[in-house]
Structure formats: structure tokens, C-alpha cells
Automatic annotation (TrEMBL):
UniProt cross-references to InterPro entries, sorted A to Z: RCC1/BLIP-II, Reg_chr_condens
Species assigned in the record: Nymphaea colorata
RCC repeat start and end residues: 2-52
One Pfam family named in its UniProt record: RCC1
Residue runs in coiled coils: none
Name listed for the protein in its UniProt record: Uncharacterized protein
Length: 52
């Protein structure tokens, strides 16, 4: 089971924390607590997570 942490500009909700806040430090994305994260990619206003 993997974990996912995100930080940066979250003004479009792309960090996955359920808000539109900017995070200066990595914060765990709780949605992925019981899932296995295989790959992650990020763009300027989006994110994509591939699960196993």
C-alpha cells in the first residue's frame, strides 16, 4: 500500500486535499491511505494517480 503526499499551488483543487489551498509543505492525501499508488503525474492545474 502506497502513500501520496502533495504540496504547491492548490488554487484549482489539484492537490487532492478537498480544498483550494496552497500547501508549502508536503501533506498526505488521505484518500489514498488504503490504496496502492503505482504512478503519479502532475501538470500546472491537474494531477493524475494510477492505482494498482
Amino acid at each position: 500500500i502506497g502513500c501520496l503526499y502533495t504540496c504547491g499551488d492548490g488554487s484549482y483543487g489539484q492537490l487532492g486535499h478537498g480544498d483550494y489551498e496552497t500547501q508549502s509543505l508536503p501533506l498526505k492525501v488521505l484518500y489514498f491511505n488504503s490504496k496502492h499508488v503505482a504512478q503519479v503525474t502532475f501538470g500546472m492545474r491537474h494531477s493524475l494517480v494510477l492505482l494498482e
